[in-house]
């Protein structure tokens, strides 16, 4: 009893949340980590097999070209997706920053893509890009004649572009709202003072707005990178990792190793590579963010 | 609704009532008397299919006969295997009935209760009831074992569907060989604004392998050799694959979109009046002729056996779903009672003849040869029964899903021009060898 009384109140208050996080996140993570050191082919047994040390990890990096291709596809997808989302969201936020009825309505409408299911977005984009009926396929062909008649989902580069575009459509509006929040918190006087001093609009943005917005952009960067790294539904419904394996990202690789190959230990190892990547990137971004502050 | 439609609906309702009464009588004969399992609830894990919804609609009849309640939970096809995998590992008794597709079976055998004794007790002659092509899906030992693990309920053969009106106008005969199909496609493209044949080389659950396998068998090739090693990179396999992708790449009688089409896209291409032919599962007939999903009328759609190689018999790849009893179920007797009723030929027949639906799927010999069923669907089931005699299912082995995944990506790479046939198949064979060792 005495020992219990010594535990400070904040710990008690935090305990339910900590227990919940432990049960919902830490336990599965730990369980997957243990599994990643074991051999477990569901085609052989419904029980996990023997411990094999680092063999699953060694195989991933030395004897699995599909995994290495997935790493590359993940890199291409994440970098282009994050860059595009950041650029579009920042541009849209700057456009919608000013007060006005149209802008207010647009801000409300921005939430719509975000609330849609990613799987549904993938299916919709598949229809948009259908070479026979797709509206996007038709419009793009009209605007860019070189792409007229192109079968988007049968071309490596265009299929990746389609996956990025669908994810961009899903996330850019939400990130716009986040950046709008950041813009609203910037004191108007700082920008007005710069204008009074004769700074151009570009100079105001570059030297006054952007530096104050950096913490928010940092958060957007971290969030979007994490979301892009674990993107799965859209890829599954839009390209199924194709053509070939060109849009098969790490998250998709983990899924199909576990549920098509039934190789649970190996899939757990790949999942931990993805987790380590997520943790490292998040840590790096957050450090950068707080150092700035 | 005009007077004629009201009369038709009334006649259909009267017919349905009469057949329902007869069906109840027939099905009741195989159930245990005295409702010994009344009050129990049987939970069914089923894939989404209109046929299974039709079964669910008939449940009040079963519940009246036995006092057993039945609850269905539907899972979309794309998620079904994951769901079954979760059940395999969790070993729960949440579901009493599990539905499984043939090629998944070998990796999921431990989930099922062998039914031999129960089937013998019910006096059901499985070999007489089902074509072997479907029955093998429900046997253990990779289709050749002693134990029956379930009742085949949904099974398909492949047919060539074509635009009958266009073929008649242009004087084209339904193709009997793959070369004929290319030639018919050329004539269609020359005489109309349609594409010749909607193929599907895209990636979705191994769908781009289902026609390819017929090319492979037609050329005398196979997936595995006698020792169980990958054999598809043989000269026959290379020739078959080349012929398969040449429909799009060389002969250009398939719409360009075929490179990324899945099965549904290809069927839609015909249903929306863009292509003249599609080689596909027979259950797609409903989508090709249903006014809700198609611009075509039933009389515009013809069907023929799947083409073959010159001088070779027609082949068809079969696909079978079976319902079995969860090995961990605590209500196995009641569940067997339900499966006995559900698998009764009269239940399948009632769904086929229900004019409020357009359901063509049948797996039982008596219904495949039934005069009324064939009259309703223009002889499609008799043609299916013929096809099933020479049908070859895909080899059943635990690593098939992995091999299918490797081959699907390879086929897609070849059809999209990213890889050449020989090196791509050799690379796939090398990866498949590794999978088979695992």
State the main characteristics.
heterodimer; A: 293 residues; mainly alpha; globular; B: 438 residues; alpha/beta
In short:
Chain A is an all-alpha fold and 293 residues long. Helix content of chain A is 74%, strand content 0%. The radius of gyration of chain A is 23 Å and the shape is globular.
Q: What topology emerges from the helices and strands here?
A:
The complex is a heterodimer of chains A (293) and B (438).
Chain A: H1 2-6, H2 9-36, H3 55-62, H4 65-95, H5 101-109, H6 111-115, H7 118-128, H8 135-143, H9 156-184, H10 188-196, H11 201-229, H12 233-238, H13 250-259, H14 264-292
Helix pairs in contact in A: 2-14, 4-9, 4-11, 4-13, 7-9, 9-11, 10-11, 11-14, 13-14
Chain B: H1 3-28, E1 41-47, H2 50-57, H3 59-66, E2 69-75, H4 77-90, E3 97-101, H5 105-108, H6 116-122, H7 126-129, H8 132-135, E4 151-156, E5 158-163, H9 164-170, H10 178-191, E6 195-197, H11 212-218, H12 235-249, H13 263-271, E7 275-281, H14 285-289, E8 301-305, E9 319-325, H15 332-342, H16 345-353, H17 365-368, H18 371-376, H19 380-389, H20 400-415, H21 421-437
Parallel strand pairs in B: 1-2, 1-3, 6-7
Antiparallel strand pairs in B: 3-9, 4-9, 5-7, 5-8
**Helicity range of the residues of chain A?**
over 70%
Low-confidence stretches of chain A: none
User: Strand fraction band of chain B?
Assistant: 5-15%
Largest beta-sheet details of chain B? 5 strands, mixed
Shape of chain A: globular
Helix content of chain B: 40-55%
Number of strands of chain B: 9
Radius of gyration of chain B: 22 Å
């Amino acid at each position: 009893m005495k020992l219990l009384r010594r535990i400070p109140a904040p710990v008690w208050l935090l305990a339910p949340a900590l227990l919940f996080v432990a049960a919902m996140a830490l336990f599965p993570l730990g369980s997957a980590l243990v599994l990643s050191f074991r051999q477990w082919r569901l085609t052989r047994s419904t029980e996990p097999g023997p411990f094999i040390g680092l063999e699953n990890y060694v195989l991933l990096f030395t004897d699995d070209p599909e995994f290495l291709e997935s790493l590359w596809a993940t890199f291409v997808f994440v970098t282009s997706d994050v860059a595009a989302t950041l650029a579009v969201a920042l541009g849209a936020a700057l456009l919608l920053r000013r007060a006005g009825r149209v802008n207010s309505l647009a801000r409300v409408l921005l939430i719509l893509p975000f609330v849609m299911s990613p799987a549904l977005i993938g299916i919709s984009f598949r229809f948009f890009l259908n070479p026979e009926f797709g509206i996007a396929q038709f419009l793009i062909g009209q605007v860019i004649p070189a792409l007229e008649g192109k079968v988007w989902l049968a071309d490596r580069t265009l299929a990746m572009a389609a996956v990025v575009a669908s994810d961009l459509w899903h996330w850019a509006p939400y990130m716009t709202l986040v950046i709008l929040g950041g813009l609203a918190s910037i004191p108007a006087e700082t920008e007005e003072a710069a204008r009074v001093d004769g700074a151009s609009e570009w100079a105001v943005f570059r030297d006054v707005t952007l530096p104050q917005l950096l913490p928010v952009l940092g958060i957007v960067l971290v969030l979007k990178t994490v979301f892009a790294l674990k993107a799965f539904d859209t890829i599954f419904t839009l390209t199924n990792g194709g053509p070939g394996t060109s849009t098969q990202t790490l998250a998709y690789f983990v899924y199909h190793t576990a549920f098509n190959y039934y190789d649970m230990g190996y899939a757990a190892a790949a999942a931990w590579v993805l987790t380590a990547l997520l943790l490292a990137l998040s840590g790096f971004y957050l450090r950068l963010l707080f150092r700035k502050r | 609704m005009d007077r004629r439609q009201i009369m038709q609906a009334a006649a259909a309702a009267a017919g349905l009532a009469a057949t329902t009464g007869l069906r109840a009588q027939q099905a009741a004969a195989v159930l245990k008397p005295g409702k010994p399992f009344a009050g129990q609830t049987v939970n069914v894990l089923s894939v989404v299919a209109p046929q299974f919804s039709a079964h669910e609609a008939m449940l009040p009849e079963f519940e009246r006969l036995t006092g057993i309640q039945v609850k269905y939970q539907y899972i979309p096809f794309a998620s079904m295997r994951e769901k079954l995998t979760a059940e395999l590992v969790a070993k729960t008794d949440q579901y009493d009935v599990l539905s499984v597709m043939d090629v998944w079976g070998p990796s999921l055998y431990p989930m099922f209760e062998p039914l031999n004794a129960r089937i013998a007790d019910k006096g059901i002659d499985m070999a007489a009831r089902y074509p072997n092509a479907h029955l093998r899906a429900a046997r253990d030992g990779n289709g050749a074992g002693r134990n029956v693990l379930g009742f085949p309920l949904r099974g398909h053969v492949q047919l060539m569907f074509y635009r009958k009106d266009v073929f008649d106008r242009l004087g084209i005969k339904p193709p009997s060989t793959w070369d004929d199909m290319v030639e018919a496609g050329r004539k269609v493209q020359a005489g109309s604004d349609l594409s010749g044949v909607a193929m599907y080389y895209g990636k979705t659950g191994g769908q781009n392998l289902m026609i390819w396998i017929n090319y492979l068998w037609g050329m005398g090739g196979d997936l595995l050799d006698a020792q169980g090693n990958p054999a598809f990179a043989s000269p026959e396999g290379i020739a078959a694959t080349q012929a398969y992708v040449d429909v799009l790449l060389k002969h250009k009688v398939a719409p360009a979109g075929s490179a990324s089409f899945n099965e549904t896209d290809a069927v839609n291409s015909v249903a929306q009046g863009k292509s003249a032919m599609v080689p596909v599962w027979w259950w797609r007939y409903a989508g090709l002729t249903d006014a809700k999903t198609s611009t075509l009328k039933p009389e515009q759609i013809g069907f023929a056996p799947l083409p073959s190689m010159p001088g070779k018999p027609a082949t068809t790849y079969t696909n079978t779903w079976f319902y079995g009893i969860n090995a961990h179920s605590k209500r196995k007797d009641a569940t067997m009672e339900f499966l006995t009723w559900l698998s009764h030929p009269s239940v399948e027949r009632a769904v086929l003849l229900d004019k409020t639906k357009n359901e063509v799927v049948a797996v039982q010999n008596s219904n495949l040869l039934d005069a009324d069923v064939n009259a309703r669907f223009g002889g499609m089931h008799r043609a299916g029964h013929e096809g099933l005699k020479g049908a070859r299912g895909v080899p059943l082995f635990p690593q098939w899903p992995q091999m299918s995944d490797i081959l699907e990506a390879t086929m897609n790479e070849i059809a999209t021009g990213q890889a050449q046939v020989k090196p791509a198949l050799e690379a796939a064979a090398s990866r498949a060898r590794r999978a088979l060792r695992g």
